[in-house]
Amino acid sequence: MNYQDLAAWHKNLVQGTSPDMTNKLNQAATAMEQIIVPVQWVSTSTPLSAKVRSHEGDMYVVDSFVSVMTKNAQAPDGLQSTATYSITLDRSDNWQITDVGGIGAVAGAK
């Protein structure tokens, strides 16, 4: 993500997602721009690990972990973190992503 190239971020954010998921992510991205631009947010990421948690029929739930380096006006030297996502994929529809959740989904929070 780079506040100076939001179009590329939007394109990559929704790549491989179902129409419903694309709509949700576009709405979230639009809201996030209110923060991203003023603080000059730039993040880069590196995949760390992923594991299939469950699958039923053609639906797979994958827990993924991503190393993220974030730089912004308040932290110009950068902050390292690990992002955790629960991703649901539909094998019958070209492995499209149909849902994304955060650490609560991975940890089993209800």
How would you portray this structure in words?
Helix content is 29%, strand content 42%. The mean pLDDT is 93. Helix 1 runs antiparallel to helix 2 (19-36). It is built from three helices and four strands. It has one domain (6-107). Strands 1-2-3-4 form a four-stranded antiparallel beta sheet. The protein is an alpha+beta fold and 110 residues long. Strand 2 and strand 3 (79-90) form a beta hairpin.
Summarize the structure.
With 110 residues, the protein is an alpha+beta fold. 29% of the residues lie in helices and 42% in strands.
Provide the descriptors you would attach to this structure in a database record.
110 residues; four-stranded antiparallel β-sheet; 3 helices
Record the SSE blueprint.
Layout: H1 6-14, H2 19-36, E1 42-56, E2 59-71, E3 79-90, E4 96-101, H3 103-107
Antiparallel strand pairs: 1-2, 2-3, 3-4
Helix pairs in contact: 1-2
